[in-house]
Amino acid sequence: MVLAVAASAQQDGVTLWSEISSEGPVSAKFTLKGMDAQGRQVVSESGNAWMQGDSYKIESESTDIWCDGASMWVLSKDIDELVISGNETLPFMKAANVRKDQQGNITATYTADDIKFQVYITSLKHLDKKFAASYFKCNEDALGDDVIVTDLR
Questions:
Q1: Does residue 68 lie within any of the structural domains?
Q2: Alpha-carbon distance 114 to 36, whole Å?
Q3: Residue 5: enclosing H or E segment and its boundaries?
Q4: What is the largest CA-CA distance in the chain?
Q5: Helices and strands (H, E) in the chain, number of each type
Q6: What pTM value is reported for the model?
Q7: DSSP state of 32
Q8: φ, ψ (nearest 5 deg) of residue 134
Q9: What is the SS3 assignment for 132?
Q10: Under 8 Å CB-to-CB from 152, ≥6 apart: which residues?
């Protein structure tokens, strides 16, 4: 454990977003864990993310998120609801205390609603090919009729 901590490099002033997206289009696999003030795990989520400039697409077990830099679509799969809003910076993108280990795994932390989150990036690939702008927009027509859409823009 001590060796793992000593081997990781911390980058002050770097956010998770700047660390991941600094070299053009990327894809990443992640795990997100959240602990409450009593140390109980209250959130555990994993998924994939694709990023290019100010745009991103995130697919996880319970939520899919698209952002084209101007609008954001959040699909809550368990309640079949899509919320559309202006572009908001998600808290994990501002996660600080970015650490990168010798294997290239990235860890960052942030706190939101009194929950301490840790984001683990376990696979990061820099892509040669750019995504089409439509990749970062939700295709609302492809959603089922039972999905409730709330547009807050």
A1: yes
A2: 7
A3: helix 2-7
A4: 53
A5: 2, 11
A6: 0.81
A7: E
A8: -65, -20
A9: coil
A10: 83, 84, 85, 86
For 53-141, list the strands marked E by DSSP.
55-60, 63-67, 71-76, 81-86, 96-100, 106-112, 115-126
CATH of residue 24: 2.50.20.10
Write out the two tokens for 99: 């650490």
Number of domains within the chain: 1
For the chain, percent helix, then strand, then coil, each to nearest 5?
Answer: 15, 50, 35
Let me know if residue 109 belongs to a domain: yes
Kindly report, residue by residue over 30-80, the tens digit of the pLDDT: 999 999 999 999 999 999 999 998 889 999 999 999 999 899 999 999 999
Beta 81-86 vs 71-76: how paired, if at all? antiparallel
Asked if residues 150 and 74 have their Cβ atoms less than 8 Å apart, the reply is no
Domain range for 127: 7-151
* Residues paired with 35 in a beta bridge: 41, 116
